[in-house]
Design brief:
- It is a single chain.
- 37% of the residues lie in helices and 22% in strands.
- The protein is built from seven helices and nine strands.
- The strands form three sheets. A five-stranded antiparallel β-sheet has the order 3-6-7-5-4.
- Strand 1 and strand 2 form a beta hairpin.
């Protein structure tokens, strides 16, 4: 049954519902205005969320570097927040099936956006990757070296000293955390 369930696909989403609005996919930068100013608490929240669920990756031909955040269809409203803050686009990423939900992603090219620069100021876990994205080189040899460094940083253990704000912590928790309630002893686990 599990094999069959994984082969059955669900619908291919055509819209995202976020904050009382309906956004037709794909949501591209040319369709809606980008927020010219991001308040510090929103930036810290998005930085925490990016440290939890974000990723930095080179284009397959190494011509550019991209930032992305992926979420299930049910949690896609955060992608609209990234889109409003930094531009880029929100796209359908994976078709869901009976055992998994459809996935959406926000993607922006680092050289066309201030996303990497702004997120690097509040990121604690992915700041080095964001700095590479921010200054993606034009020389192909340097791009190859930067792509290798991004790969190394993703695998390297992270030893950072964290002094975080509540906004950052809230974003990181929304990306990675969970709250477990135990009915048998009336306790909660974060």
């Amino acid at each position: 049954l599990t094999y069959l369930a994984k082969r059955l696909t669900s619908h291919n989403p055509t819209h995202i519902y976020a904050y009382g609005e309906k956004y037709k996919l794909p949501v591209r930068a040319s369709k809606f205005p980008i927020q010219p100013f991001i308040c510090q608490t929103e930036l810290e929240y998005l930085g925490g969320f990016f440290d939890g669920d974000g990723y930095v990756f080179p284009a397959s031909d190494l011509s550019a570097c991209h930032l992305g955040v992926g979420q299930s269809e049910a949690q896609a409203s955060i992608l609209i927040r990234f889109y409003i803050a930094f531009g880029g686009g929100v796209y359908h990423h994976k078709i869901g099936n009976v055992t998994t939900k459809a996935a959406m992603q926000w993607v922006v090219t680092s050289t066309r956006s201030q996303a990497a620069t702004k997120l690097a100021t509040v990121s604690h876990l992915k700041a080095k990757q964001l700095l590479i994205a921010q200054s993606w080189p034009s020389c192909i040899d340097k791009r190859t070296a930067c792509a290798a460094e991004l790969k190394r940083l993703k695998r390297a253990p992270r030893t950072v000293q964290l002094v975080v704000t509540w906004s950052y912590l809230a974003g990181f928790f929304d990306a990675e955390g969970y709250l477990g309630l135990h009915a048998f002893d009336n306790s909660a686990v974060l």
